[in-house]
Specification:
With 476 residues, this protein is an alpha/beta fold. 50% of the residues lie in helices and 10% in strands. Strands 1, 2, 3, 4, 5, 6 and 7 form a seven-stranded mixed β-sheet that branches. Strands 8-9 form a two-stranded antiparallel sheet. Bound molecules: zinc ion. The site of zinc ion has 4 residues, from helix 18.
Amino acid sequence: MKKIIKITIYVAMIILTTSYIMSNDALAQNVEKIELENAKEHLVNGEYKQAVRIYERLLENNPNNIPLLKMKAIALSNSGDELNSLKDFYKIIQQDPNNVMALTGMGVSFGNLGEYKEASNYLESALKEEPDNKIIKNYKKIIDDINIKYRYVPTEKPVSTAVKNNGEVPVWVKSVVSLWGVEKITDNDFFSILEYLIKKDIIKIPKESSFENTKELKMLSWVKGNLNLWSQGEIPNSEFFKNMNWLIENKFIKSDKMKQKSQKELEYEVYLFNKYLRDIKNNISKEKRYIEYSNPSQDVIKKFLRDYVKWNFDQQVKMPSSGFPDPTYEIINDTYIIKYKVYINQQPIGLPLDHVSTLENTFKFWESKELKTNNQKAKMIFEITQLKHEANVWVTWVVRDMGEGVLGHAHLGKGVVEVALGDYTCDGSFQLYDVESVEKIMTHEVGHSIGLQHTKDRTNIMYPTYTPSYAYCLLS
Ligand SMILES: [Zn+2]
């Protein structure tokens, strides 16, 4: 009884405080939060159209909101509407040109339209921002491979008819540069002068003039040398602009001019981009373009379901493991040497991730461990066999419902080992796990098949829970 009373008081208190602070704004925020949760739920259930409708509604009040645009773009792309998805990703890039997620999304969507070169350029820019991002790397690899495989004519990009900035720099700037060269003015003064001249449009720098290899480390003294050559008339203005852009990129000179575009310019960019998309759409139907999707997950799941029996050992899974032959062993120097013969099933066709070769790591992992059996030391040896009937363990990669959140399954001591290739929980469509995650699950399951149970030690491979990473899901 006492307990119930306590709970009632607690609930009443919460209601009181919330209603006390809840203003109209807070109410609106709460409604938005609920809407966002609803949209996310639709998305992960694969109900993309419903999710898009909610994002559209929320964007009405806040049309440039980057997180909303991002979610809407992903939902659109998943529903197969790449053109509209690109429009939203583009809106993000206009506001934030280095947005990794939008750059990656642009790459994926252009790939899904068969514009592989453009796709690769965007992924390249995304990788510049996050060189270690595995998802971007996976996409880049696939798209570059497809680009080599198929011949296609890239859709031409509409050229801006706005007056092209070919660069302008008055001759007298040369004397300012030579003063800096002989250290009559300090670095900081020199940079402020340049900032001022750029701001006042006295120096106009074409954005596209830059050094080819920007990754290479260059020093300020090197730029100083170049500019000195320019002031003496030994190198052309185009070189001056490259060095200016280097100074801007490396933050020696602040230039807001580059970033601030007028509303008109932004609209013109959108106009050109939309024209580009229309041209792509026309080309796709005119050429009857064959498109291989950027994300192989959908293709893999289709092939997997078509050939279900090939990848799944349904009967053997249901069978008790006693139906499998026992591994053989010999005792050398008081140590059991237990030999497992393993039959390895093929991987589904079209899977660009190689899991078979990672089995070697799994086998090495267990072969290097000293285990115990019958209170004696034991060592494992694995041997691959093509003959199912003599194998003690059968290994396969599957996409089947093994139970909620179950990543793999194995019989204890011998029998079938199944490891999940991916699942539907990232963004509502089937998404493959990355190679490292699948290898980890495999090592765990093989552990069971050589007789090991779960442990409570989180750092141990036999710990029962694990969160896999996805190879291509943009929401992860
Ligand atoms: Zn387990």
